[in-house]
Design a protein that fits this description.
With 263 residues, this protein is an alpha+beta fold. The protein is built from three helices and eleven strands.
Length: 263
C-alpha cells in the first residue's frame, strides 16, 4: 500500500513540473480539478484520497493551425456537382380487369310426365286355314302325251279346229272314241268318232304343223275364250285327262291338237 502512495506522489510531482515549464505563456492553461479515485484500503486503515492531475495540455491541441498546416491554406474550390440521371423508376402497369362471369339464368327443369302404361293387347288367335284336299286324279285308261296349238288353215275365218289321235302300241289308231268340247263352260255338239287302222294327217303334205290324227271336228265360233277338250268313249265316259286352251280376239293359233296313248 505504501508503494502505491509513493507512486501517486511521484506522479503529482511530475505533473507539477510539467505545468511549471509551460507557465511562460500569456494565457495559463486552466487546471481541471482532479477527480478523486477510490482506492481499496486494508482493514484497519483509513482510505487515502489521491488526486489525479490532468494531463498536460498539448500546445498543438490549443492551436489547430500549428497541428495541421494545411488548415491555414484556403479551401480548394470544389467541383460543380454533376447531374447524374436517375434511372427510370419501373412504371406500374395495372392488370386488366378480370371478366366478371355473367350468371346463367336457371333453366326450367321440365316436370316429368307420367308415361301411361301400355295396356296389353290380346293377341288374336290365328285360326289355321283348312288345307285343301287335293282332288285325286282319276285313273284314266289313256294318258295325255301331247297338247299343241298351230296356226289356222283358213285365215280370216272364225273357225276353231280340233284334231285328236287315239292309239296304242300294237293296233295304231283306235276307233269308236269321241271328244267333249266346251267354250267358256258351254258344251258344244260333237258328232265325230275316231277311226281305227292307219291314221290320217292334220294337213296335206309334210309341214312343221302336220301331225297324225284319226278324229277331227270344226267349230265355226269366234276363237276368243276358254276352250276345253277331253277324250270320251262311245258311251260318253271320260277316258283321258281334259286340256284347256285360252284363245284371244282374232287369235291365229286356232288349230288345237291332242294325242292320247292307251296305257
Amino acid at each position: 500500500m505504501k508503494g502505491v502512495i509513493r507512486l501517486g506522489l511521484l506522479l503529482l510531482l511530475l505533473a507539477a513540473f510539467v505545468i511549471g515549464g509551460c507557465g511562460g505563456r500569456e494565457e495559463p492553461t486552466p487546471t481541471r480539478t482532479p477527480i478523486p479515485t477510490y482506492t481499496s484500503t486494508p482493514e484497519g486503515q483509513q482510505p487515502v484520497a489521491v488526486a489525479q492531475q490532468p494531463a498536460a495540455q498539448n500546445p498543438a491541441a490549443q492551436n489547430p493551425a500549428a497541428q495541421n498546416p494545411a488548415a491555414q491554406q484556403p479551401a480548394a474550390q470544389l467541383p460543380a456537382p454533376t447531374n447524374t440521371p436517375v434511372p427510370p423508376t419501373a412504371t406500374f402497369t395495372p392488370e386488366p380487369p378480370t371478366a366478371t362471369p355473367t350468371p346463367i339464368p336457371p333453366t326450367d327443369t321440365p316436370i316429368p310426365t307420367e308415361t301411361p302404361t301400355a295396356t296389353p293387347t290380346d293377341t288374336p288367335t290365328i285360326t289355321p286355314s283348312p288345307t285343301p284336299t287335293p282332288t285325286p286324279t282319276p285313273d284314266y285308261a289313256f294318258s295325255l302325251e301331247l297338247a299343241e296349238q298351230f296356226p289356222t288353215q283358213l285365215p280370216g275365218v272364225d273357225e276353231v279346229r280340233v284334231y285328236v289321235y287315239v292309239y296304242n302300241g300294237e293296233a295304231y289308231a283306235l276307233g269308236g272314241y269321241t271328244i267333249s268340247v266346251s267354250k267358256d263352260g258351254v258344251p258344244l255338239s260333237v258328232l265325230a268318232r275316231s277311226t281305227d287302222g292307219l291314221p290320217g294327217e292334220t294337213r296335206p303334205g309334210p309341214s312343221p304343223y302336220t301331225r297324225f290324227a284319226n278324229l277331227g271336228a270344226a267349230f265355226f265360233e269366234k276363237p276368243e275364250g276358254l276352250w276345253e277338250v277331253q277324250l270320251l268313249d262311245g258311251g260318253g265316259f271320260p277316258m283321258g285327262e281334259a286340256v284347256q286352251f285360252v284363245l284371244g280376239p282374232d287369235d291365229n293359233l286356232s288349230e288345237l291338237y291332242l294325242r292320247y296313248h292307251e296305257k
